[in-house]
Design a protein that fits this description.
The complex is a heterodimer of chains A (320) and B (478). Chain A has 320 residues and is mostly helical. Chain A is built from 16 helices and no strands. The relative contact order of chain A is 0.11. In chain B, a hairpin with a 5-residue loop joins strand 4 (144-153) and strand 5 (159-167). Classes of the chains: A mainly alpha (320), B alpha+beta (478). At the A-B interface, helix 1, helix 5 and helix 6 of A face helix 2, helix 9, strand 7, strand 8 and strand 9 of B.
Amino acid sequence: MLSRTADCLYWMARYMERAENTARMLGVNYEMSLLPQSRDAAEQGWRGLLSISELTGSFVQRFGEVNARNVMDFMIRDETNPSSILSCVRAARENARAVRGALTTEVWETQNQTWLEFNRLLRAETTLRDPGPVLERVKTRSHLSRGVTVGTMLQDEALHFLRIGTFLERADNTARLLDVKFQAAQSDFFGVASGSDELEYDFYHWSAILRSVSAFEVYRKVYRNVILPEKVAELLILRSDMPRSLANCVNEVVSNLHLVANEQSHETLRRAGRLQADLQFAHIDEILATGLHAYLTQFLDRIGDIGVGISRDFLVPMVA
Amino acid sequence: MMPTFDEMHGTDSAVRDHYRTYVQWLGRQPHDAMRSRREEAEMIFRRVGITFAVYGAKDEDGAGTERLIPFDLLPRIIPAHEWREMARGLRQRVSALNRFIHDVYHDQEILKAGVVPAEQVLNNAQFRREMMGVTAPGDIYSHIAGIDIVRAAQPDGSGTYYVLEDNLRVPSGVSYMLENRKMMMRLFPELFSEYRVAPVAHYPDLLLETLRGVAPASVNEPTVVVLTPGRYNSAYFEHAFLAQQMGVELVEGPDLFVRDGFVYMRTTQGPKRVDVIYRRVDDDFLDPKAFRADSALGCAGLLDVYRAGNITLANAIGTGVADDKSIYPYVPTMIEFYLGEKPILQNVPTYLCREPGDLKYVLDHLGELVVKEVHGAGGYGMLVGPAATRQEIEDFRRALQAKPSNYIAQPTLSLSTCPTFVEEGIAPRHVDLRPFVLSGRSVQMVPGGLTRVALKAGSLVVNSSQGGGTKDTWVLEV
């Protein structure tokens, strides 16, 4: 397969996954902003969301005041923001269009249709008044986009690079979400709890995080227990049977990388394999003892490093 | 000006035999049904992304830069016997043109014989000296040819097909031929049980067979690719479509590189050798080392590999020397010269402004003639006398006098009309036809071609860049 084709497929999948995760993050923030809380706490939530995506600077430049409406506007449909849902959906579609010959008709049409629909929908004024349905719709189209690739494409390199893109992006996004949400709760989590109100607040906080990665029911099923922060962390980091956990994402990246391995990809495979082993044999207590933030920061570095390796080995190789 | 020939109705407005069933069917369709079918068609074309790019334009959604080519619901129907004759003529014409290209880059016998004036060829900007002595596999140079055909009425009311121009470089439009048929079968399946319409969907197969058949002789299992200028090119959809339908890679210039006398593409598994390039990039941009140095669309060193016979380009470099409008008038004599046959398809009578006698006639009759730049394409740089203002005619006169050899002129043929679904209802609009002729180990084509239609009432310009649309073209099997 052409390197450029692989590159477009990889980015098509990454952008679609990013659109979905942005929608998930906005959804959980929006939901939490409806809980009784101080104005400061609410603003803190939106600030956190911007910092997860490393977008605080460009946001402040464009909007100034951090509030729900502005952040929604910026993250959903601002075309100057390359990570907004609108920008991601457009980028996914542009990449698909560049390699439509490598996609099945159904995959291409799904991607094109998604773009046509959101290009209209996201610009509508109602989107900001009631973002819930739109964010749900983004998730639905992303499910569809992933499903149609698995359901119609030949299981060759094209599909493998799509999968690598999906899971690398998801690993990155889940880690960022965990990082910012645990930080927000850190005073409660590792600090001294004060009073029974906190307990109640915790429940809503953690259950919202679980729901943002479609893991609320999964948590109950796996642990049959009340919502405990360390269990939430364990589920989303180490449980390899949880589809959005870091462990599962890295497993998927590694197995797809093995399927496309070439003469120069040894080092990238080694690093990915090592990260996989680290997750496989880690214990949540150790991670929490060293500090979750430090752990996730390091994880993001390693994921970024694997991404660079994939680009160098497969997508924009220097030959001739 | 001659009367107009209508594809559906005869001089007495009676419906022609081959349209009779269609007209009866159409009479049974409520008007609204046709309108909603048209909306359905547009929706599908947009979803499938059958669009062409327009530089710098934005639509009301801000999506911009992509437009649909208007698709007309009424088919253009060609009876079996007319197509048989046309196909024979196309085969003959394209064979002679390929012989001509081979000849001008080798022994130049046709020039020595004085059949075509030597300076017309040798001083032509499309004549590529780099091609002298280059022998393409099977002596085929224009593997994919699009021959534009129009029909004009004779005084007795019958219609005659004329070749308006030959497109031997990178003719486009075949994807619309294929998509239009798919759309018609989707919208009006019942019509296809009433008519036996010759299928066209096997075109990509014929194309692949043609391309594989002209690979360098030493290659057993040739690797074929389609070379596109990229997704911002107006015909990008077609490039991607053909690559996908043939199951070959769609490459851009930066995907290719030359090493040790061969062309390779960069793949995820390392370099892979390429044997045949169906290139949709103009000669000038193919190789920055040989042609335009600023081209980012080509592959440096490609020409050397080509001259060494280690890669096949389809179409070959330098085929423009045979489809130039200044060469066109000589094609009928070319056919007699190379094949010893009478031309089956006729040329439109043409005045060469480089000849003083012809120039005088043209200047005296500008208001009646169509004057074209010899290197122009896409309907640009032409004067349609009867439709032009006095000012336009005078402007053109000055341009013509300044550089007569740059122009040819033809009588204003009234292109035939075909009923077309427009805002006011169903009305006649002018059409042409572009069949695609494939030359490899043999000469092949699918029945019909792309019918283009000028949607503006009275307009004779069918180019999509100037508001033209397309129709499905039915060649009947009986």
